[in-house]
Amino acid sequence: MDKTRLISNKIAHRGYSGIPTFLRSKYCEDLNKLDADYVVLGVPYDEGSPFIGGSRFCARSIREQSLRFGGGALYDIENDREYLREAIENHRIVDIGDIDILPSRGDLSMEKLSKVINLLSVENLMPIVLGGDHTITYPVVRALNNPIHVIQLDAHIDYSEEIEGMSYINSTSFRLLHKLSNVKSLTQIGIRSMRDERQNVIDAKKNGSKIITMPEVRKKGPENLIEHLPSGEDCYVSIDVDAYDMSMVPGCVSAEPGGFQFDELKKLLRNIAIEMNVVGFDFVEVNPSLDVRTGSTSYLGALTVAMFLGFIDAKKNDY
Ligand SMILES: [Mn+2]
């Protein structure tokens, strides 16, 4: 019998077997030996979640759900197209595991995150960052080597004032990153929460943020939002799972009604991938301990990350 068929591997791709790296990519823990185009990195940090913690397990559960995409590609029947087949076959996606989080030392943990992102950025390797809560976007963006536009997909603007030195909390991330000298613009899409404070919205706009509320997304159509973005320029995209409608994300503590349906977010992400030069992205705020037993929120996360990466890869390789 063929020995390669004895253990779970790429060919025997049951969703419940195998070591859970993202899309069964190669695991590389030596940052000096990275050979990849796309680098998946987990940040199991949820100490920035002031309500119900648990999103530290987001990256792990997204990796587990990603094992269910076992066909060696993502197939989209909508346009009869396969995504990521060559990237997967040629090991262009590499998983480097998780940032070594120091419990109760968010400052040091986020410094480690920034260091890793900077190492990737100077090598022109695209980071795909799995949260954690939304705290992580600020330490990621500050470590990117080149000037970028930031696009945030979220129900909330995450633009609270930094109080009593709390820099590493999920509600302040975008106020902090907006001040960075490498951030050329901030566009916040899908905003709708009635828990956001008016003064923070005023501040964000005053500082130049372009806020596109969810009702505006619907009015304009998600495929037309791109006209509000600087086409062709480098951008970093941050996706909070609560951009999706509350009904779709039971495993998200901050879910809000009136959010994106899947097809709407798909259209938007495809357009961003085509029209902008995406240099990295993150996906945050899945809390698996709150999810339904099928892990549907983590599944949606794995699908969204893989799909967006597929769109980016298709653009890069011109197919
Ligand atoms: Mn957020």
Bound molecules: manganese (II) ion
Shape, per Cα inertia axes = globular
How many domains would you count in the coordinates? 1
Unreliable stretches (pLDDT < 50, length at least 5) are: none
Percent strand equals: 15-25%
* Rg: 18 Å
The CATH topology corresponds to Arginase, Chain A
N-end to C-end Cα span? 39 Å
**Strand count:** 11
Q: Would you mind describing this structure in some detail?
A:
The mean pLDDT is 95. Helix 1 (58-66) crosses helix 9 (296-316) and helix 8 (262-275) packs parallel to helix 9 (296-316). The longest helix is centred in the last third of the chain and has 21 residues, at 296-316. It is globular, with a radius of gyration of 18 Å. The chain has helices at residues 58-66, 85-89, 106-122, 137-141, 173-178, 198-206, 214-220, 262-275, 296-316; strands spanning 26-27, 38-42, 74-76, 81-83, 93-98, 126-130, 148-153, 183-191, 210-213, 234-240, 277-284. The strands form two sheets. Strands 1-5-2-6-11-10-7-8-9 form a nine-stranded parallel sheet, sandwiched between helices. The protein has a two-stranded antiparallel ribbon with strand order 3-4. The termini are far apart. The chain is of the alpha/beta class. It has a single domain (24-318), classed as 3-Layer(aba) Sandwich (Arginase, Chain A), CATH 3.40.800.10. The chain has nine helices and eleven strands. 51% of the residues are buried.
